[in-house]
Each structure stands twice: as structure tokens, then as C-alpha cells.
Amino acid sequence: MADAAKLGTNFTGVQMSPKDSKKMMEAANHWMPDVPGDRMRMLEERTLRSNEADRIGSVPVPGSAKGMLKSTFDMVRGKSPELLVDKLGERLAYERNGVRLYEAMIAKVGGMEKADPAMVGALQQIRDEEYEHMLTIAHAIESLGADPTAQTPCADVVGVMAMGIVQVLSDPRTNVPQCLNALLTVELADNAAWELLIELSEAAGHKQIADSFVRCKVQEDEHLIKIKSMMRRDLLNDVQ
Ligand SMILES: [Fe+2]
Ligand SMILES: [Fe+2]
């Protein structure tokens, strides 16, 4: 694994060959794209497809009779329990993925020649807390009578969103600052999502669930501070 960006033979920029770049720009102006349509047609097509498409999955009907009763009760009161279950499912998927991401990061940092035990320890603590959060969410889903093992539509979407992050963390060539950058994206989104989830749970009349999430939010605040400071320290060390 490379530890920092180094100067090397990178030919991607136009400055590498001004003569060829000029020729390339002339060609781009001379030969039009050989596929039919233009920007407007693409816009129309996308709008049409969006209107025609079905939704990404559905929230499953609660498996238990108790859950069914709770859903009916909330529905009668004009609430949408499926929305909360969908968002809870999203958080569960995200936290589970968080555990895997930190596992990959621990392997990367721990395997370095001059591994920093304090950094490895901090990453292990975050990983353990992400796991704890996953269990908290699973418990909340069960308390609503829903099934925490079901993949909800929002869980599906965050899984797709996280694909790039997983690729960055599991690529053997990525270095520590690059992976910390990916983890910063994860923690920023994580933080905002917990904040919203607490608000949603309260608004849906599930105060007990909202209260059980406060501890997770406090820990997520710490995750964000830790990842930000690791990143800053690492980069400043290399720059100075
Ligand atoms: Fe998290
Ligand atoms: Fe986190």
C-alpha cells in the first residue's frame, strides 16, 4: 500500500502533450457524436422513464400479529408506520455496512509497517459502536412488530450508495488519507441520519425508540470528530 501521493508518470492531463491536446479538441469539434439524440432528448427520456418506473421495493407487512395491530393503530391515527420502518431499515443496513468498512480500515492501518496502535484502537472502538447501533436499530424494528432482517427500499438505496465507499476501502492500493476521506463521507451522512431518525421517531409517537437513539447520536458525534482529526493529522504530517 502506498502511504502518500507521489510524483510519477501520469499522462492523464492535457498539459502532458499540448500538440495532441489541440488536435483532440479540433477533432471533437469536427466529428459529432455518432449516436442519435441530444441533451434535450436525453432529458425527455429520463423524465419518461422516471414516470413509468415502478418503485424500489416495498416495506414488508409486519410478520407478527402484534406488529400488525400496531401498524393498524398508527395508520388509523393518520401516520405512516411503514415510513419509519423503511428509515429504520435504512439505518440498520448503513450501520451493518459501517462495521464492514471499519473492519477493512483496521486491516489497512494495522497492517502498516509503522502501525499506530492508538489509531487502530480508536477505529476498533468506532467499529464496535457501529455494531452496537445496528443492534439498537434491530431492537427498535422488532418493538414495532416488524422484521429487522427484511431489506426495505431505503436500505436497498443506501446499499447502492455505499458501493463506491466499499470499493475505496477494500482496494489494496488506497492509502490511509484516501480511506479516511471515504469514512468522513460515511460519518457525515451517519450523523445527519441519526438526527433525523430521532426526530422522525418522536413525530411518529415512539418516544421510547427516540430516547434509545440519543446515545447512538452522541457516539456518532464523536466518530465524526475522531475521523476528522485523524484525517487532519495524517495530511498535515505529510504536508509539513
Ligand atoms: Fe453509524
Ligand atoms: Fe459512525
Task: Produce a short descriptive summary.
It contains 9 helices and no strands. With 240 residues, the protein is mostly helical. One fe (ii) ion (FE2) is lined by residues 95, 98, 130, 133, 190, 220.
What would you say this structure looks like, in words?
With 240 residues, the chain is mostly helical. The chain has a domain of 159 residues: Ferritin (Up-down Bundle), CATH 1.20.1260. The protein is built from nine helices and no strands. α5 packs antiparallel against α9. The longest helix has 33 residues. It is flat, with a radius of gyration of 23 Å. The mean pLDDT is 90. The site of one fe (ii) ion (FE2) has 6 residues, from α4 and α5. The site of one fe (ii) ion has 6 residues, from α8 and α9. InterPro entries: Ferritin-like, Ferritin-like_SF, Ferritin_DPS_dom. This is Ferritin-like domain-containing protein.
